[in-house]
Automatic annotation (TrEMBL):
It comes from the Bacteria. This is DNA-3-methyladenine glycosylase II. It is an enzyme of class 3 (hydrolase). The keyword Transferase applies. Residues 90-188 form the HTH araC/xylS-type domain. It catalyses: Hydrolysis of alkylated DNA, releasing 3-methyladenine, 3-methylguanine, 7-methylguanine and 7-methyladenine. The keyword Oxidoreductase does not apply. Its EC number is 3.2.2.21. It comes from Leucobacter allii. It holds the Pfam family Ada_Zn_binding.
C-alpha cells in the first residue's frame, strides 16, 4: 500500500507535544499496542520506531489498528480539508461522507464519478489508505458509537440508524473498529435534548443528541443567519428560541430542531480565546425522522447546514497576518460558513433572490415550496413542506410559472431553464465537478457570476468560492473595482468563502443591509 507521504518528523513532534490542531488530520498507529490515537492523546507517547502515521481513521483500521479507548480518535469532528479540493479523490470522499455507498453502492458511486470501480478503489487506497467500502464502514461505525452514547436507542435500532444492513455486520464492524462488542460499550445518561414542539405524529422516531464541533463556535452569528434566511413552510423560529428546519432525506422530510438558548447559554459555546483550541462542544439537536434509516442523512445535512466540520483554528491561522481579515477573525473566531440544506432548493432560491431584498427573496422561496413541493413525500410535521421538485417546476409553462410566483417573464424562464438542467442530470452535490457545474450554470440565460459563485459556496460547499461582484462584499472592501476585489482575494485562497462570510458578517453587524 503506497500511502501519501506524511512528514514523519512533523507528525511525531505534533504527537509528542499533544498538539490538538493535528487531531482529525493525522492519526497515530502504535504497533506495540495495536491501537490508533489522536496526536493529542494524553497517553505516554511511544518510541518513534513504534509509530505509524495515517491520513484517515479508515486507513488505520485497514492497517489492522483499533481505536484507542482513552483519547477516542473516532469522536473527533470531521474536517473540511477535502472540500478545498476538486480532484477525483476529494469528490469521492465527499460523496462517501454524504452516504453515497449506502445509497447507491460502490458501482453507483464509480458511475457518478465516471470512473471504473477498480480505478476508484486504487486512487482512494493510494491517497487515503482505504477503499470506498472501508471508508463507508468506518463512517457508519463512528456514527453508531455516537448514537450508542448520545441516545437511548436499543442496540438493534442503532445498527439500522447508522446504516448497517444487519445486526451481525454491525457487530463485526464495531469489534473491528473498536475491539469491543456494541453491547459492551458504555452508555452515557441520555442527554436532555431540545424540545420537540410542534404537532408531530407518534409514528415517527425522534432522536435528541449533541453533534460535536470544534470550539469556538459563534452560535449567535449562525442563528441570526438561519433566522434571516428562514423560508416560510421550510423553516420556523419557535417561541422558545429554537429554530426548526425541514431536512429532506431518502425516506421523506424530517425536522431538525436546534436548541440555541441552551447552546448560547453554555460557557464553552462562546467564541472565545485561543485557549479553546482542540476542545469540542456539542450542538443540541432533536431530529424527528420518517424512519430510523434516515438518521445519518439528516445528521449529515445538519452538519453541513451549520458547518460543524469547520476548524476555526485553521481559518484563524490562515488569516492571522492579513490586514483586512485578521481583525475580523479576531472578533469572530468561531464564525461558520453555513451550507445549503438542499442544493437544488438553494439554487432555485438564489435565482429567485437575484436583484431583490432578502425579505422578498424569502417570500418567493416560500411560494416556490408551497406550490412545487412533492405531494407524495412523507413529511413528519404537517407544519412543514417538502423540498420543491425540479420536475414539477419544469412541467409548468413559463407564463403560468410567472403568474404563480409573481416573477418577471425573464426570471420565470431562468427558473425553468435551471429546472431543465437539474432534471437532465446536473448534480449539485459533493461529488460534482465544480468547474463543470460552474460552466453549465453560467451557460443558462439569466444566471451570472454572482449566482454561480453563491451556488458554489453554499450548495457545492466550495470553501474557496468568491462572489467578487457582490455589492455588499465590495462595500465591505471599500468599493474597489471588480478586478481589484478579485486581486485582493487571491491571498485568501483556499478559504475565500470564509473570508466572504467574515466580510458580510462585519457589514451586517454595522447595521447596513441584507446579504445572501
Amino acid at each position: 500500500m503506497n500511502l501519501p507521504a506524511l512528514d514523519f518528523d512533523a507528525c511525531y513532534r505534533a504527537a509528542s507535544g499533544r498538539d490538538a490542531r493535528w487531531d482529525g488530520r493525522v492519526y497515530l498507529g502504535v504497533t506495540s499496542t495495536g491501537v490508533y490515537c489522536r496526536p493529542s492523546c494524553p497517553a505516554r507517547k511511544p518510541r518513534p520506531e513504534n509509530c505509524r502515521f495515517f491520513p484517515s481513521a479508515a486507513a488505520c483500521v485497514a492497517a489492522g489498528f483499533r481505536a484507542c479507548k482513552r483519547c477516542r480518535p473516532e469522536a473527533v469532528p470531521g474536517t473540511r480539508d477535502w472540500d478545498a479540493r476538486g480532484d477525483l479523490v476529494a469528490r469521492a470522499v465527499r460523496r462517501i461522507r454524504d452516504g453515497a455507498v449506502d445509497a447507491v453502492g460502490v458501482p453507483g458511486l464509480a458511475s457518478e464519478l465516471a470512473v471504473s470501480e477498480r480505478h476508484l478503489r486504487r486512487m482512494l487506497v493510494e491517497e487515503i489508505g482505504a477503499g470506498p467500502l472501508q471508508l463507508a464502514r468506518t463512517r457508519r461505525a463512528h456514527a453508531a458509537r455516537a448514537l450508542i452514547e448520545e441516545t437511548a436507542l436499543p442496540i438493534v435500532d442503532v445498527a439500522f440508524a447508522a446504516g448497517f444492513g444487519s445486526v451481525r455486520q454491525f457487530g463485526d464492524t464495531m469489534r473491528e473498529e473498536f475491539g469491543i462488542a456494541p453491547s459492551a460499550m458504555r452508555r452515557r445518561a441520555r442527554p436532555e435534548g431540545p424540545p420537540t414542539a410542534g404537532p408531530t405524529s407518534d409514528e415517527f422516531p425522534t432522536l435528541a443528541l449533541r453533534l460535536r464541533t470544534r470550539a469556538p463556535f459563534d452560535a449567535v452569528a449562525i442563528r441570526h443567519h438561519l433566522a434571516a434566511h428562514a423560508v416560510p413552510g421550510r423553516d420556523r423560529i419557535e417561541a422558545d428560541g429554537v429554530t426548526a428546519h425541514a431536512i429532506d432525506t431518502p425516506g421523506g422530510t424530517a425536522v431538525a430542531r436546534i436548541d440555541w438558548p441552551r447552546l448560547t447559554g453554555a460557557d464553552d459555546a462562546a467564541p472565545d480565546r485561543a485557549a479553546s483550541r482542540g476542545r469540542t462542544i456539542g450542538i443540541p439537536v432533536a431530529l424527528t425522522l420518517p424512519t430510523l434509516a434516515d438518521a445519518m442523512p439528516a445528521i449529515q445535512t445538519v452538519r453541513r447546514l451549520l458547518d460543524l466540520d469547520a476548524d476555526p483554528a485553521q481559518i484563524a491561522d490562515a488569516f492571522a497576518g492579513d490586514p483586512i481579515l485578521g481583525p475580523l477573525v479576531a472578533r469572530r473566531p468561531g464564525l461558520r460558513l453555513p451550507g445549503a440544506r438542499d442544493p437544488e432548493e438553494f439554487a432555485f432560491g438564489t435565482v429567485l433572490g437575484q436583484q431583490v431584498s432578502l425579505a422578498a427573496a424569502r417570500t418567493l422561496q416560500g411560494r416556490l415550496a408551497e406550490r412545487f413541493a412533492d405531494p407524495g413525500a412523507v413529511v413528519v410535521d404537517p407544519g412543514f413542506l417538502a423540498r420543491p421538485s425540479a420536475a414539477r417546476i419544469l412541467a409548468m409553462p413559463a407564463e403560468e410559472l410567472r403568474a404563480a410566483l409573481g416573477l418577471t417573464a425573464a426570471r420565470a424562464e431562468t427558473l425553468r431553464a435551471l429546472a431543465a438542467s437539474l432534471a437532465g442530470g446536473l448534480a449539485l452535490d459533493g461529488g460534482a465537478d465544480r468547474a463543470a457545474v460552474r460552466e453549465e450554470l453560467a451557460g443558462i440565460r439569466g444566471i451570472g457570476p454572482w449566482t454561480v459563485e453563491l451556488v458554489a459556496l453554499r450548495a457545492l460547499g466550495d470553501p474557496d468560492a468568491f462572489p467578487a461582484g457582490d455589492l455588499i462584499l465590495r462595500r465591505a472592501l471599500g468599493s474597489p473595482p471588480l478586478r481589484e476585489a478579485a486581486r485582493l482575494a487571491e491571498s485568501w485562497r483556499p478559504f475565500r468563502g470564509y473570508a466572504t462570510q467574515h466580510l458580510w458578517a462585519d457589514f451586517l453587524a454595522a447595521g447596513k443591509q441584507d446579504t445572501p
